[in-house]
Amino acid sequence: LPIFGQLDIPLKDGSQFQFMADLAVEILVNLFNLGEQAQYSFFVYNGFFAIAHLLQNSDNSNITFNLYMRYFNLLGTITYKNLQMQLIDAILMNFDLWSKSEIKHQVRILKHWSRTVYIPFKYMIDLIRPLEWFLFAINRYYEFPNSEEKIHYDCRKSLFEIAYESFKTNFSTSHTSIIMGFICARESSMLERKEMTNFLTTLLRNKEVIINANIRVSQIIPFIFTVLNGPDKDDDLISQILSLFIVIYKTMNYEVKTPLYKLIQNVINSLYLDQGYIFQEVIYTSLITLMNANNVVELLPLLCINAILGGPKYLALLLKNIDRKLNYFISEQSTIYP
């Protein structure tokens, strides 16, 4: 192990030996090939945790995707399951370690987690990395000043993919609270609110998991309204929230006391009466499409109010794009919006 503490020691000419970290892994390969007794001893003495500590305290230039892959390949050499889990826990899925690397390495590592590591080793990873761990890891990638760049999006995408797989077997009301916290917290960025809302909508499409976890979907709605009532929102976020409501009421048909038409009336009161909000034409048109595609006639009052307040161009868009074959007469608002 001492060799892992010498990664940054310069050569006589003052330069750094660039392959020291890689060669140190080769020593481990030779050690583990000696058999399970050697692997057991390494496990008992928490060898990988010691190495992780030394790596985290070394120069960031040592932390690369190439080094990560060398440790990943150790999984094929190790036959002792407990040592495999220690390797995953201490090094392979050590977020604090790999977040020291350049973002170009991080995006490849996280993609490898999603595509190669998580599913085959899910039975181990779920014991050491619960769903909330991935949610908080995602949150870290909104802290970058340039978090909207594609490379940061790709990092979050890989973590969201893992979080969804974890959700299928490890979901509870506490996870709902964490997600709602990210959506509603004042310090959350607009981007985080949108992506977390989209993620929550994806989760709600898996009704079996939601029901088995005893999630009361009706309790989500009041929290969502804090976003609609607040100043930090845009057309895209509101559209995502309306899509979330449609999944709850129409697509998955969850049991909710408040009918959808009353919920939409509350949205109208919040956006139009209290705030004088007007959708941009592109999003307004997409909302008409959303109503048509999902037979959500309850959206018609919102579209009508927006057309009245927005002017003739919105009325023209509504008349042009609305599906006149929908059964608007069955809506409770049909006497007001025929």
**Quick one: overall form?**
elongated
Structural class: mainly alpha
Strand content: under 5%
What characterizes the major β-sheet? Answer: none
Distance between the termini: 77 Å
Quick one: how many beta strands? 0
Quaternary state reads single chain
Q: In words, what does this structure look like?
A:
- The chain contains 19 helices and no strands.
- By secondary structure, the chain is an all-alpha fold.
What are the SSEs and their pairings?
Elements: H1 20-32, H2 36-44, H3 47-56, H4 65-77, H5 81-92, H6 95-98, H7 103-117, H8 122-128, H9 131-140, H10 150-167, H11 173-184, H12 190-204, H13 207-212, H14 220-229, H15 235-251, H16 260-274, H17 281-294, H18 300-310, H19 312-321
Helix pairs in contact: 1-4, 3-5, 4-5, 7-10, 9-10, 9-11, 11-12, 11-14, 12-15, 15-17, 16-18, 17-19, 18-19
Which labels suit this protein?
338 residues, single chain, 0% strand, 65% helix, elongated, mainly alpha
Short précis:
The chain has 19 helices and no strands. By secondary structure, it is mainly α.
